[in-house]
Amino acid sequence: MRVLLVDDDELVRLALMEMLSDAGYEVVETGDPVDALGLPEHLGPPDVLITDIDLHSELNGFEVASYAHQLWPKVRIILVSGLPADHVHARQPLDPRDRFIQKPLSADRLLGTIAQLAAD
Question: Which of 31, 32, 44, 90 has the greatest CB tally within 10 Å of its CB?
Answer without folding.
Answer: 31
